[in-house]
């Protein structure tokens, strides 16, 4: 396999094998109806399977109705939501990709506006559209920022119910056909807000020191792992750093990753920030190409767990270098895939791996081979 670019080498994760290392990261579409996926989601995610990606993540999916970020976010808190997810998962499988889902709870960032309506707390303009608010929850009664609602502090009984709901959603995800489950522990949502000392001021066993603040994350992971068959991989998305010096740190993430590896997490998905403000806010980190890659690299090297790098990775050569240097095991592409849903297939050609469209869907590959022979750049003497 020495002639195959790292980006296009298969990766074994428990009982699955990916066709390459390209992952489509979860991207919220804010277009679900009462938590149900529809044709938009099938077409949005299906194009990435046709486009050659190895793993395709459905967007953040709420395990409780009150855990949605917005009224337009999907869920798996009810059996009626399974068929929409099944259509997505089965289409991905039929087209060579591994279907994956990110399960989470928005916590104190729930009951928000869709981005195109303002991306803040729901207000009268949203009420006029029929998007009524609900009270967010969190580890402590600390709002995201000034002007945001004060969340209700979860009781221990609430936490037990939350863990049960993660398990129930996992069972529905398996029934839908997903082959990878990811727990969303990043971007200021509920699990992350328990981890960060900026948002968790509890004095019980779910707060205080690092072990206490990690307890919710570890309990969810243990419960989900116990629910999953041995051949289904489990990912965990983390905000590797909060940004502020008195917040969650990379050192904390290394400790968390080591613990999660012990209890059955297979891949750490290393993002950052979001504890206050927008989910994609970069805190003190300068947003530049690959700005979060060092987080994945350090977690991988210090714990031995596989990692996924994400954040302004846009070029195939850039992605290949990350893998070749051993900084991560998987490459997550997000907004660049919105620009180019065929990113993985174009990357293969860019890296000289597939120059004859053999990896493309047969419905389009044969056309492109024929067109190539009429191109002014075509050299028949080198065509073989």
List the helices and strands in order.
EEEHEHEHEEHEHHEHEHEHEHHH
Report the average pLDDT across residues. Answer: 94
Quote the distance from N terminus to C terminus: 22 Å
CATH topology: TIM Barrel
Radius of gyration: 21 Å
Multimer state: single chain
Main pleated-sheet profile? 8 strands, parallel, barrel
Estimate the helix proportion, in percent: 25-40%
Question: For the largest beta sheet, what order do the strands appear in spatially?
Answer: 3-4-5-8-9-10-11-12
CATH evolutionary superfamily: Aldolase class I
**Total DSSP helices:** 12
Strand content: 5-15%
Q: What top-tier CATH class fits best?
A: Alpha Beta
Highlighted features:
12 strands, 8-stranded parallel barrel, two-stranded antiparallel sheet, TIM Barrel, 384 residues, alpha/beta
Detail the topology: elements first, then pairings:
Elements (H helix, E strand, L loop, with lengths): L10 E3 L2 E3 L3 E3 L14 H12 L4 E8 L19 H13 L3 E7 L19 H6 L7 E2 L13 E2 L2 H21 L3 E6 L4 H6 L14 H18 L6 E6 L10 H13 L4 E5 L21 H11 L2 E4 L6 H9 L5 E4 L1 H5 L3 H8 L11 H11 L12
Parallel strand pairs: 3-4, 3-12, 4-5, 5-8, 6-7, 8-9, 9-10, 10-11, 11-12
Antiparallel strand pairs: 1-2
Helix pairs in contact: 1-2, 2-4, 4-6, 6-7, 7-8
């Amino acid at each position: 396999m020495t002639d195959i670019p790292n980006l296009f080498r298969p990766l074994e994760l428990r009982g699955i094998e990916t066709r390459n290392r390209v992952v489509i990261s979860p991207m919220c579409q804010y277009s679900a109806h009462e938590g149900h996926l529809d044709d938009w989601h099938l077409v949005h995610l299906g194009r990435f399977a046709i486009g050659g990606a190895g793993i395709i993540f459905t967007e953040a999916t709420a395990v409780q109705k009150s855990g949605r970020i917005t009224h337009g976010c999907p869920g798996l808190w009810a059996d009626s939501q399974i068929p929409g997810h099944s259509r997505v998962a089965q289409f991905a499988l039929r087209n060579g990709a591994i279907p994956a889902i990110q399960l989470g709870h928005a916590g104190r960032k729930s009951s928000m506006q869709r981005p195109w309506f303002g991306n803040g707390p729901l207000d009268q303009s949203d009420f006029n559209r029929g998007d009524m608010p609900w009270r967010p929850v969190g580890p402590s009664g600390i709002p995201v920022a000034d002007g945001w609602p004060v969340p209700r502090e979860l009781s221990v009984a609430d936490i037990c119910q939350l863990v049960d709901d993660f398990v129930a959603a996992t069972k529905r995800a398996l029934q839908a056909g997903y082959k990878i489950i990811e727990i969303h522990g990043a971007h200021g949502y509920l699990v992350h807000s328990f981890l960060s000392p900026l948002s968790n001021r509890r004095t019980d066993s779910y707060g205080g020191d690092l072990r206490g603040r990690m307890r919710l994350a570890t309990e969810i992971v243990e419960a989900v792992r116990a629910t999953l068959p041995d051949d289904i991989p489990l990912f965990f998305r983390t905000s590797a750093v909060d940004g502020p010096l008195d917040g969650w740190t990379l050192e904390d993430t290394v400790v968390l990753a080591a613990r999660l590896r012990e209890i059955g997490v297979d891949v750490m998905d290393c993002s950052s920030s979001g504890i206050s403000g927008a989910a994609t806010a970069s805190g003190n980190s300068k947003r530049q190409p690959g700005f979060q890659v060092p987080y994945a690299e350090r977690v991988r090297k210090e714990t031995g767990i596989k990692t996924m790098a994400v954040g302004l990775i846009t070029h195939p050569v850039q992605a290949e270098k990350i893998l070749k240097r051993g900084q991560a095991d998987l490459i997550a592409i997000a907004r660049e895939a919105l620009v180019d849903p065929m990113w993985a297939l174009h990357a293969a050609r860019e890296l000289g791996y597939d120059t004859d469209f053999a990896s493309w869907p047969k419905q389009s590959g044969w056309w492109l081979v024929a067109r190539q022979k009429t191109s002014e750049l075509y050299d028949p003497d080198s065509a073989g």
